[in-house]
Design a protein that fits this description.
alpha/beta; 8-stranded parallel β-barrel; binds magnesium ion
Length: 256
């Protein structure tokens, strides 16, 4: 029995190694190129989930009246409406190309809750005031808990202050740093889960992937849309690839 148990362990390790070699796919701003979707729309999360993706990324702002909305750019198109300086009601009046209004975080999380197989990768945009970032992180974590999503939400931010705020508010959650200016050992020292760096940064520092893994950190790379880049980062052994073209990456990975 002992030998058999060892054999199973060996197979388990082999399987784990094989699985680790295959990066997981994260849709950038949702699977927004799907029919009927738009960047950061409710439909884009649903489409990412329906494609069976590991995760779907989105961006959150804290509005002037402390609302939380899901959008990427500070100013949407030619509206001159500013995500941080205008009120939630005004921001939510903006209509996306698929006909949805810019969603509140509340509405977005209701959609996320309907698709339990897909992880939420939640980015807090850098705010002008660090105390506002702290307040945003606290409000976001409370809302994530209210929807029972704490075990399948990852937090990401360019702001170290925001990363540390998420770490403090949600000590058991996974928090990744985006800016790309810190070597993995420094991200480890901050108590974060991993690096989530641009393809340009990781092409300049391919050694950071091995270094991160050596530190027990995980590695995500964004935004990888070109097939040659996809192959490069699969070879490099990153854990996650964030892309605007999840269908292309899935095909390249052999359907998984
Ligand atoms: Mg983002």
């Amino acid at each position: 029995m002992k030998g058999r148990a060892l054999l199973f362990t060996a197979f388990g390790l082999l399987a784990a190694t094989a699985a680790a070699a295959q990066p997981r796919v994260v849709a950038h701003r949702g699977h927004w190129q799907a029919e009927g979707a738009a960047q950061n729309s409710l439909a884009s999360f649903a489409a990412a989930a329906e494609l069976g993706l590991y995760g779907s990324e989105m961006d959150v702002w804290l509005t002037a009246d402390d609302g939380l909305v899901v959008a990427h750019d500070r100013v949407y198109g030619d509206t001159q409406i500013d995500m941080e300086r205008d009120k939630e009601r005004i921001i939510r009046s903006i209509v996306l190309p698929n006909g949805e209004n810019i969603p509140s975080l509340d509405a977005y999380l209701r959609t996320v809750r309907e698709y339990p197989q897909t992880r939420l990768v939640l980015e807090l945009k850098s705010l002008t005031d660090l105390r506002r970032e702290d307040r945003a992180a606290a409000k976001i974590v409370r809302m994530i808990r209210r929807y029972g999503l704490e075990e399948r939400t990852d937090y990401i931010a360019f702001s170290i202050n925001a990363c540390l705020a998420f770490r403090k508010e949600a000590p058991d959650s996974r928090v990744f740093y985006l800016e790309g200016d810190l070597a993995p050992h420094r991200v480890k020292a901050l108590g974060l889960t991993g690096i989530d760096y641009s393809k340009e940064v990781l092409r300049a520092h391919p050694e950071w992937v091995v270094e991160a893994h050596g530190e027990g950190l995980e590695v995500n790379v964004w935004t990888v849309n070109d097939e040659a880049d996809m192959r490069y980062f699969v070879q490099l052994g990153v854990d996650y690839i964030t892309t605007d073209r999840p269908e292309v990456l899935l095909r390249l990975l052999g359907g998984r």
